[in-house]
Amino acid sequence: MLWLMNAYCKARKVSLAVEKLQEMEAKGIEPSGHIYCILINGLGSERKLGEALKMFEMSKANGVAQAPTYNAVVWSYCWSLKFDEAFRMVEEMRRCKVGLNSRTYDIVIHHLGKAGKHEEAYSVFLKMSNDQGCDPSTCTYGIIMRMFCSKGELDKAVKIWNEMKAKGLIPAMHMFATMISSFRQANKLEDACKYFDEMMDLGIRPPAMVYSKLKQALLDEGKKDTAQSLTVKFNALRFAPNPMKRQPKSAK
């Protein structure tokens, strides 16, 4: 039942997921906190805030409201651009000690950035470490980094990148892709190549589109040797055996 309700919500057929909840209740089956979380997220993403909040109250009445459930409510408020209410929910999490975490802040920061409230998003990012267990994660840094890149503020994106690495966090593939593409678009090809090389050194395979666009930009600037070196590195990693893939046993 859980996977079906989740599938309905992802397909934006949340009304069908709610019907499944009603079927469960009719059979005397108590929904888990995970089920409420899925439904609140689904309703929130369709901007059915009132229904999402009713689900939240039901989860509290049934004693299954936990940190992910509260996060789903924060998500729902943010989808409806009701950031003051989202912050009040964060404060309630803090007051009730239900497990305020970096995911909570990631939700708020992401939606503030999406709404163009970049200064507010960055302010939340700077303050989140004040809450125990809420240090920025790789995901958090990625959100802030993409926000600065989208504004063309590459110096700030680099600052965030360096701060993340200083904490021992390893950038994900999409984060490298964002930095490479942003510097390429700014015609700062040397910097773009630096992130490309770093990505390759970590054994992370860049998306073919990121590679091909950077290569073409280098060729357009007459940097044929650099483009060739890029290709050699890309192909070396592209055709290297995947260490996570089980190799066939050799014949004896």
From TrEMBL:
InterPro entries: PPR/CCM1_RNA-binding, PPR_rpt, TPR-like_helical_dom_sf. The keyword Repeat applies. Keywords: Repeat. The keyword Repeat applies. Gene3D superfamilies: Tetratricopeptide repeat domain (1.25.40.10). PPR repeats lie at residues 1-31, 66-100, 101-136, 137-171, 172-206. It holds the Pfam family PPR. This is Pentatricopeptide repeat-containing protein.
